[in-house]
């Protein structure tokens, strides 16, 4: 049978492989040497299965399957690190079924008790999870999203035939068999327990009481339902309606009943219970870790050719290119870049009018991002269709009479002469709109998840019919994503006949009809890293290639577009003597009093007793090292925040931020602008899009399906000078290992093991989004056990806790919420949400947050005092920029850290991770200093009482930082709002704003 190209790509997953020969590229080989072996005697969120003869137990510990005698003892490992295996189920003949993520999707496998006979049972691009052997051993029950949501399926092991028992709209989990093999019990959306017979008859057994969730259902004695009921601060094993455990952290996997006795996992242990008699089954498992983390010193950029060219567009006649760089808009023509705006505010996302005489863009100079139009001949610059919401990523319609744009909630609007009209519901981080030639359709990139149970999906083309009022999703290629939902398409050609987009880091073009329907298979047109697509006429594309502007014809002829734009770091401020009443050097256990800090060339020259005249009198203040937020995403809401963001960090004494994931060219542009002094803010160390796997969620993830494509991603990282690389949730272990081997910079992820043995340098969060749907580093009750603590302390990997639950502390103190800095510098909608969130604390939900927070901090404290490496980060703006740094520090102190220990996690430790002499006040260190009222070593809240802040010796006071936005908090609507189109009605469950929930931690 002859396969079409589209079918071939679907079956082989080699879109990137055919794109490039870069798989032989040597980016670097930073291999960590083997370190030591760590003995594990407890497990966090482990499951257990017992053999049919009762002699053996199988457990999943650090993503491998292990077996041990049923009475306990030394565990023997059956699967390797690449198998990424979990949830064992014993069958006849001591066969063990399990789920594995080896190839980038979950599939079912079998293995023998002796570790032999490994066999894969399912294949393809859908996930197959949570296998359970039938009593007769002839079938496996499992769940899969192959039918549009997670449904219960049965696999016949003799024929490989699969029968679906439940489907849409279920989100089923963890099926288990009845003793007679006639029924299967499972949970539905963590809210109910159901059974289904093999002929599809359903019965509801349990509905979760309000405020609870249900996990791990099984049939107990007398066929009663048994399951784990989770509620704030409590995880109980239930039989029928009776709790049979008390004050245990039950892990939520199916228990194994034998008469009235039950085997389950709880409190880090394998535990059996019969009546009131409880017995723990001891085990030992030994795993290797690499203890030599890579030595890395982040580079402080000093200048050079501009690489941070953001959102380029080409004029209709092809002679000009407009883009943002160095916090200003530029127009490039004939190799010369002309600056159009003045750098003070955030001006972005230009678009030429159809006749080429005007430039449309968005600017926050009036307080929030709003549309503006600039006449390129006269320089006249004025507002266009102002609105009460943010207006971002605009595009002119082909006739120039309308503008499509996004607001801060991800809704698409059309601005036309008669007014503003909403044309889509709220979308999750959609891309920039593009118009059909006839102006009747708008297209953009939008995520479409595979199921409700797991948030990841593919980034597809979403077509908005402005006449019929309908929405239509279209895959760019089967099971593929548009590379990022930012500037990687779709983009309609000027003649309306083609659409271009980026898939797996190369450009594709597809012929379409007037409504965007594909008329043929997409055709690959570039063979190098391709970002930020724009049409130049109808037969060529302009794009960014690792910091270079390039033009390629559709038949592959490539040229570089030269520009003269350069930047350099400004000269350090003049010598200053700063007089302070006290200072903390970043190490001492007490403040030192009454000194002058002498600053020269942006560094601390000396610290001396006070004498003579001071240039800056901070005699009533305490100097502390500028704080470092080691986990945030500047451009997750970068356009919404605009120039406010850098000012906010500084106003709260944060002088350095580290982003483990951002849209790459937005990141590079901001990093250069901050270093060049054209944007006011902290030092910024960052990476581009996180390297993800076959499915994505955020708009700045890179779906990566092959080693060849991974080399493209690493080439981009190398040539754009990333400070780190983050591998994300769905990247298989094999590609994670390859990234470690080929990268020159530190790497971090959401995983502890096997990352600790691969040579990864850090883990983000205590246990956030995980492809399993739960974490092996922290339980649903917020607790971690010996395995986790031992691996962190032995390996030296960093952990960035990102204490989202620290908002629970607002129940006692809202001063940081009402602080003038917060009120002035937060965008109006962000501040409204912040206040509402703070006001919700003290409720039962807030009490739950406090219980989880305690567990998280106790986890971090054990790592810290065990000699591990804890660094403070917030995941802002998913948590609140700048203010969350302080609530994180306060939470650390609330539950056991001393103020000094807490401050070290936000100064010395992240500076060490970056390999920079930051986080200290001492001769030779950069003069990054926060000047605060009070003694933060005695009261951690004093660290937020910032009155002055210095970055590289440049001193800012708070009124200066607030001035640009002090009188610009609201903007009245001046443009009429027209009735929304029918397409704006929310008919899809996944259409929600990015801020709707604490999305980092749904699956913690």
UniProtKB/TrEMBL annotation:
It comes from the Bacteria. InterPro entries: 6-blade_b-propeller_TolB-like, Amidohydro-rel, Metal-dep_hydrolase_composite, Metal_Hydrolase, TAT_signal, WD40. Gene3D superfamilies: Amidohydrolase, TolB, C-terminal domain, Urease, subunit C, domain 1. The lineage of its organism: Bacteria, Bacillati, Actinomycetota, Actinomycetes, Pseudonocardiales. PROSITE patterns: TAT. Belongs to the TolB family. This is Component of the Tol biopolymer transport system. GO terms for molecular function: hydrolase activity, acting on carbon-nitrogen (but not peptide) bonds. Residues 623-955 form the Amidohydrolase-related domain.
């Amino acid at each position: 049978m002859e396969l079409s190209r589209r079918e071939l790509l679907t079956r082989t997953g080699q879109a990137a492989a055919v794109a490039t020969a870069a798989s032989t590229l040597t980016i670097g080989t930073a291999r960590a040497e083997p370190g030591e072996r760590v003995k594990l005697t407890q497990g966090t969120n482990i499951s257990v299965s017992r053999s049919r003869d009762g002699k053996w137990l199988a457990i999943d510990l650090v993503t491998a399957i292990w077996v041990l005698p049923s009475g306990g003892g030394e565990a023997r490992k059956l699967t390797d690190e690449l198998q990424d295996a979990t949830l064992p189920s014993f069958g006849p003949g001591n066969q063990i079924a399990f789920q594995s993520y080896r190839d980038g999707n979950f599939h079912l496998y079998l293995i023998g008790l002796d570790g032999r006979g490994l066999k894969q049972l399912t294949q393809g691009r859908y996930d197959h999870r949570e296998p359970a052997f039938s009593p007769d051993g002839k079938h496996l029950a499992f769940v899969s999203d192959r039918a549009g949501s997670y449904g219960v399926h049965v696999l016949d092991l003799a024929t490989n035939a699969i029968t679906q028992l439940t489907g849409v709209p279920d989100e089923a989990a963890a099926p288990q068999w009845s003793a007679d093999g006639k029924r299967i019990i499972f949970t539905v959306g963590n809210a109910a327990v159901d059974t289904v017979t093999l002929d599809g008859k359903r019965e509801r057994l349990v509905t979760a009481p309000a405020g609870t969730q249900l996990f791990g259902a099984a049939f107990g004695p007398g066929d009663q339902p048994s399951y784990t009921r989770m509620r704030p601060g409590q995880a109980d094993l239930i039989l029928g309606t009776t709790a049979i455990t008390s004050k245990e952290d039950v892990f939520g996997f199916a228990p194994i009943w034998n008469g009235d006795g039950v085997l389950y996992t709880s409190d880090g242990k394998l535990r059996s219970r019969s009546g009131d008699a409880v017995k723990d089954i001891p085990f030992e498992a030994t795993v290797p870790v690499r203890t030599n983390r890579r030595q890395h010193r982040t580079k402080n950029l000093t200048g050079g050719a501009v690489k941070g060219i953001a959102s380029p567009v080409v004029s209709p006649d092809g002679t000009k290119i407009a883009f943002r760089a160095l916090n200003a808009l530029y127009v490039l023509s004939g190799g010369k870049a002309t600056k159009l705006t003045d750098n003070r505010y955030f001006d972005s996302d230009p678009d030429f009018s159809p006749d080429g005489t005007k430039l449309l863009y968005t600017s926050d100079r009036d307080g929030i991002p709003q549309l503006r139009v600039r006449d390129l001949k006269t320089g006249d610059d004025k507002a266009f269709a102002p609105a009460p919401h943010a207006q971002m990523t605009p595009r002119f319609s082909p006739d120039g009479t309308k503008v499509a744009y996004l607001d801060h909630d991800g809704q698409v609007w059309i601005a036309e002469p008669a007014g503003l009209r909403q044309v889509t519901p709220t979308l999750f981080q959609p891309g920039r709109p593009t118009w059909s030639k006839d102006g009747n359709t708008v297209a953009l990139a939008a995520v479409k998840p595979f199921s409700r149970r797991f948030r990841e999906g593919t980034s597809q083309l979403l077509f908005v019919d402005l006449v019929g009022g309908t929405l239509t999703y279209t895959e760019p290629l089967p099971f593929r994503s548009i590379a990022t939902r930012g500037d990687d398409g779709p983009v309609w050609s000027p003649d309306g006949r083609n659409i271009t987009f980026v898939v797996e880091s190369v450009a594709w073009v597809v012929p379409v009809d007037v409504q965007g329907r594909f008329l043929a298979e997409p055709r690959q047109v570039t063979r190098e890293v391709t970002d930020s697509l724009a049409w130049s006429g109808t037969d060529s594309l302009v794009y960014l290639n690792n910091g270079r502007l390039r033009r390629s014809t559709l038949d592959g002829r490539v040229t570089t577009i030269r520009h003269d734009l350069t930047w350099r770091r400004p000269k350090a401020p003049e010598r200053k003597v700063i007089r302070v009443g006290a200072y903390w050097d970043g190490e001492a256990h007490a403040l030192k009093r009454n000194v002058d800090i002498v600053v020269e060339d942006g560094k601390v020259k000396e610290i001396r007793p006070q004498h003579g005249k001071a240039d800056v009198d901070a005699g009533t203040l305490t100097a502390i090292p500028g704080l470092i937020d080691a986990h945030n995403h500047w451009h997750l809401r970068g356009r919404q925040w605009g120039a406010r963001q850098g000012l906010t960090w500084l106003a709260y004494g944060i002088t350095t931020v580290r982003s483990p994931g951002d849209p790459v060219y937005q990141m590079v542009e901001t990093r250069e602008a901050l270093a060049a002094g054209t944007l006011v803010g902290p030092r910024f160390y960052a990476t581009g899009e996180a390297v993800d796997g076959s499915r994505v969620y955020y708009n700045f993830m890179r779906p990566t399906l092959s080693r060849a494509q991974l080399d493209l991603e690493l080439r981009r990282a190398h040539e754009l000078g990333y400070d780190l690389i983050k591998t994300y949730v769905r990247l298989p272990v094999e590609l994670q290992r390859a990234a470690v081997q080929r990268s020159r910079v530190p790497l971090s992820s959401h995983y502890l093991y096997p990352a600790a043995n691969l040579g990864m340098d850090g883990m983000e969060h205590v246990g956030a989004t995980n492809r399993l749907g739960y974490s092996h580093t922290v339980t649903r009750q917020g607790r971690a056990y010996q395995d986790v603590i031992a691996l962190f302390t032995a390996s030296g990997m960093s952990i960035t806790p990102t204490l989202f639950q620290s908002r629970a502390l607002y129940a006692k103190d809202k001063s940081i919420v009402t602080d003038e800095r917060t009120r002035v510098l937060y965008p109006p909608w962000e501040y409204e949400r912040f206040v509402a969130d703070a006001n919700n604390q003290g409720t039962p939900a807030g009490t739950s947050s406090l219980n989880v927070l305690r567990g998280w901090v106790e986890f971090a404290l054990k790592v810290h005092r065990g000699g591990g490496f804890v660094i403070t980060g917030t995941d802002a703006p998913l948590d609140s920029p700048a203010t969350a740094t302080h609530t994180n520090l306060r939470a650390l102190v609330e539950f056991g850290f001393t103020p000094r220990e807490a401050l070290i996690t936000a100064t010395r430790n992240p500076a060490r991770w970056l390999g920079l002499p930051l986080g200290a006040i001492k001769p030779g260190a950069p003069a990054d200093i926060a000047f605060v009222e009070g003694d933060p070593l005695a009261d951690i809240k004093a660290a937020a009482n910032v009155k002055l802040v210095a970055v590289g010796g440049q001193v800012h006071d708070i009124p200066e930082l607030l001035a640009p936005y002090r009188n610009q908090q609201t903007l009245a609507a001046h443009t009429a709002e027209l009735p929304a189109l029918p397409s704006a009605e929310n008919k899809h469950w996944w259409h929600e704003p990015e801020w709707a929930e604490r999305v980092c931690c749904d699956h913690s």
